[in-house]
Amino acid sequence: MNSFFLFSFILIFNFTNGQDFDDSVRKLITEKCIKDIDTWKKSLRKLSAELLQCGKLEACQDFKKQTFHDNIYSLYRKIPLTYHEAKTIFVVPELDSFAKLPPNLLGFNRVWSGDYDECLEVENPNDNSYQSVFYFGSSKITIKSCRTQFCWAHLNLPIGKILAKSGDDVKIVSTTCGAGKPTDVKMSICMPRSCSEHDLKLALNHLRILPMTTKEYLNHSIVPVDDDKFVCDVTCRPVDFDPDYLFWIVTVILGTITFICVVATVADYYQEVENEKIEMSLGEKNIKEGAVSEEGLFKYFLAFSMLSNGKSLMRISKNLNNLKGVECIRFISFTWVVSGHIWGTWKNADNPFKIIDILKTRSYEIWVNAFFSVDTFFFLSGLMLSYSFLPKLTKRKAMDPMVWAVFYLHRILRLTPAYLSFIIFYATYGPLTDSGPNELVRREDMENCKKYGWKNLLYINNIYEPRKNCMNISWYMATDTQMYLFSPLLLVAFLFGPIPGILFSISVIVLSTLLNYWLFLHYDLPLTLIQAYMTGDEKIIHILQDFVYEAAYIRIPPFIFGIVMGYVMLKTRDIKIHMNTSVVFACWLISFILSLGSIFTIHSYNRGDYWTPMQRASYYGFSRIAWSISLSWLIFAINRGHSGLIGKFMSLSFWTPLGKLTFCAYLCHIMIVNAILNLERSPPHFVGAFHTYLTKVIPSVVASCLFATIWTLLFEIPFAKLESYCILKLVSRKSSEKKKEFTKI
């Protein structure tokens, strides 16, 4: 008990001796905020005075219990006076929920977190303003719950300069202060909810209730220059979810669609039962005559049946012409994307030096260099496009504008329903995942969906004001769609033979590579987004992310390789290709060298070695070409009998439904990852790759697939069926009109 009182007194001494608000500052802060902070400081002073008299347990027997009871909330800790009082007197924490100096400071622990739940349970027995009051009809209801909020004070410490001088492992690092910066040092505070982030920033800088070091604060400067502010930013965690009208509209729409799906499922089930009875009575040959009709509106209604859609999801095609291994590659690439994004959350870890140290380990490049997973998706997109569309395309059809109108319409109608519905869901329900102390969810990203979601629907969010985006992962959708818009030029080139198609493809790849060289040489760009964000240079981040990483004209080589490979697979699907064992082995060896070289060559750069702009441009351009060549051989080997056990494993039937889920799983995985990580009440702590995969990657992948299953059954498959019905009706009508014209002639 003696130790506790001594510790409590030391803890609040700095707070009770902080200066009061000057009149000039009071004009800048809301009146309610000043009142609540003043109330808190007065309570601290009273409590500290009493604690001075309680240095010994005996003195506490004569403690002024009422004073203690009235002011203990300011310390926010349960302090028993006697055994019986311990059962009846308690207060939930405020000052105790503040951050303290954490362990592992030598490991650059820059996240000084207090107790989140303790902060949110604060109540003041003598001040109802610290309690939630609302009205239900004419009845006034008071909830003795916290009117405080858990915030982060971002401290303006010269960490970047210190790290820059500490060794060769960190050569380029931002020295800026603020949320999201790589050297941001932040400590949690628990303050009245009446204070805005701006209020708290002014209050913390003026009252000196945090340790101050700069001359301006020692001289009691009120509004110092930004670079000299000890607290450069304050960010508060959401404490309430206030549903707006859009939330209720979306809820009604989701409920309606779910209801339609349930009713359609029941109708589909009873139709199947009825058809089975007819089959048993009439026989299999006469089943079509007696079966329940699915024509008209009923067919469109049954498109929402989760029973038939579930069968479509699980169905394994027996078409021998289907490409094998594609769904396996697609799903594994998706898990790679998830692990890469989880890697990005380690920027908030409380032991960043350990994360920096693992860059010395070459094996971690598989994780750090997960960017190739996106190139794999681009490759598969081009592969499946050319393999499925070229057999239907002729020179005569290529001259028909209607063919290309349907070509583009199919793309829009196929992707947009599931995409649009999730954007709306993310904008309205996404804030529910933004809970807990950790700043992992970008609430601004969700709000942007309400303002700038129209750019996503036009698939231009990566080129028009890309900094103002909705769902930061949606750049892929825009980039892939822009490649799709360009693809007819490549597809038509292959109609004239392999030579024109390959020559045109090579010319586009060369132009893309030259543009890649120009950007890296002109702007002296870093190789990865991780390195760009470590510089803290907004211009460099903007150019690398918007003009290189998310740009279709830079990322298009894998897509073109996919189109070329789709053409090759199409032309060889009826041909038995015999290859010498040594040739097959050499191809596999080259493929492994190219793929591993693409991933691991960058290790020395990530470790801190200097690469010239020419080296960086060469790696960025040719690593993706090498990766695409490796994927091309993998697809060829699996489907032409040169893959052995690898091909058998990648062709197993269970990959098919998993691969079908990747589209919706990709859309939702960021929300799922953030929701899972926000369940933690302590800052992220990096242990190792195995621990991360076991506790974060696998749960995130499983949860994303479960959510994707629901979204696929509710939106993707039903609207894909409706799209196919509409396109088929449109094409058949066009064909019948042509047939009538021909008959007239």
UniProtKB/TrEMBL annotation:
The chain crosses the membrane at residues 245-270, 366-390, 402-427, 552-570, 582-605, 617-638, 658-677, 697-715. Residues 1-18 form the signal peptide. GO terms for molecular function: acyltransferase activity, transferring groups other than amino-acyl groups. InterPro entries: Acyl_transf_3_dom (IPR002656), Nose-resist-to-fluoxetine_N (IPR006621), O2_lipid_transport_reg (IPR052728). Keywords: Membrane, Signal, Transmembrane, Transmembrane helix. Residues 30-221 form the Nose resistant-to-fluoxetine protein N-terminal domain. This is Nose resistant-to-fluoxetine protein N-terminal domain-containing protein. It comes from Caenorhabditis latens.
